[in-house]
Design goal:
CATH architecture of the largest domain: 3-Layer(aba) Sandwich
Number of domains: 2
CATH topology of the largest domain: Aspartate Aminotransferase, domain 2
Largest sheet: 4 strands, mixed
Structural class: alpha/beta
Shape: globular
Order of helices and strands: HHHEHEHEHEHEEEEEHHHEEHHEH
Strand order of the largest sheet: 1-9-8-5
Helix content: 25-40%
């Protein structure tokens, strides 16, 4: 049995007619940038996430850029963040002229180590940017304490975490700003790139809306230099159809994760399943295990028809483009070891029990 890493067809088929109708609605309106579809989506997402303002933007990467720009972070400023995430986390910091200050991760959750963050604060620190990696919130209470104590804002990179919770608070509601991605593979995915900035701060919301449209207010009168970070109406219409289904899709991912956990125990496999700390609601954007000899095991799984992915093979501090920052191998041992051992297995809604058994059987063979 071949099992892909991701299959969006099962998600698409039941809502196909509604999606086509939404696309036709936008085509007939001839309103493609902003407008009622985007405004309606923003209201619906703000209500779903539980935040005062939701600002649609062109991608999760641009959500990070807009947030940094709204806070006035620029040349020479320092932003403390993780070395283990999707590239946009660190890339967005460098793109505004700031310096990413990496600290190691918690090897159990893969998220940033809050104690290490506190030790990395300097007089030049202008923000803290934790990532809710793979759908699990970072340990926010100590991070928020640090941010409050030193008087800097906290930006939540929640690109992979819509619907994730921390002590009954939603991802994207705890920091000064939250950043989401609607890349097609996300739990809530568009038909292309799309993103969202969230905040409870009226001024930051105003600035984010200003910056996503070249800083113009009114049109052609530019108060700040922003960018073209607008959300397409077509993507907003797609997301509006999908949003009501998100709780059921999240529940399906959680059930799939429970089944993997049970199957691993039954087979007594030497793998480390995703850690689920008490008080944090994991949404399993990815189901990431840790295994020895990861690359050999992955190659065997591929030959067995099982789709996998490595998120992420090279920590930021060892990326060629960040060589000028001066980090060396061994600087962040937890992140480096995790990068050698992590492997994502299929977890999408629609994954069946026979498919999961096939994944686990192939994994058992590969490990043997």
């Amino acid at each position: 049995m071949r099992v892909p890493l991701l299959d969006l067809h099962e998600q698409y088929r039941p809502i196909r007619d509604d999606l086509i109708a939404a696309l036709i609605r936008v085509a007939d309106s001839q309103r493609f940038i902003g407008g009622p579809e985007v405004e309606s989506l923003e209201r619906e997402l703000a209500a779903f996430i539980g935040v005062r303002h939701a600002i649609g933007v062109s991608s999760g990467t641009d959500a990070l850029l807009v947030s940094l720009m709204a806070l006035g972070i620029g040349h020479g400023d320092e932003v403390v963040t993780t070395p283990f995430s999707f590239f946009a986390t660190a890339g967005s910091i460098v793109r505004v002229g700031a310096v990413p200050i990496f600290v190691d991760i918690d090897p159990e959750t893969f998220n940033i180590d809050a104690d290490a963050v506190a030790a990395a604060i300097t007089a030049r620190t202008r923000a803290i940017m934790p990532v809710h990696l793979f759908g699990l919130c970072a340990d926010m209470h100590p991070l928020l304490d640090v941010a409050l104590r030193v008087g800097v804002p906290l930006i939540e990179d929640a690109a992979q975490a819509i619907g994730a919770t921390y002590r009954d608070r939603q991802a994207g509601t705890m920091g000064a700003l939250g950043c989401f991605s609607f890349f097609p593979s996300k739990n809530l995915g568009a038909f292309g790139d799309a993103g969202l900035v969230t905040t409870n701060d009226d001024r930051l919301a105003h600035d984010a809306r200003l910056l996503r449209d070249h800083g113009a207010e009114p049109k052609y009168f530019h108060k700040r230099v922003g960018g073209n970070f607008r959300l397409d109406a077509l993507q907003a219409a797609v997301l509006r159809v999908k949003l009501p289904n998100l709780p059921a899709w999240t529940n399906a991912r959680r059930l799939n994760a429970d089944r993997y956990d049970r199957l691993f125990r039954e087979r007594r496999l030497d793998v480390r399943a995703p850690f689920r700390p008490f008080g944090r609601g994991h949404i399993f954007n990815q189901y990431v295990i840790r295994i020895p000899s990861r690359d050999d095991v992955r190659a065997r799984l591929e030959r067995s028809g099982i789709g996998t992915e490595v998120y992420y093979p090279v920590p930021f501090h060892l990326q060629e483009c960040f060589a000028s920052l001066g980090y060396r191998s061994g600087a962040f041992p937890a992140a480096e070891r995790v990068a050698r051992e992590v492997l994502a297995l299929p977890i999408y809604p629609g994954l069946t029990l026979p498919q999961q058994r096939a994944v686990v059987d192939a994994l058992a063979e590969a490990l043997a």
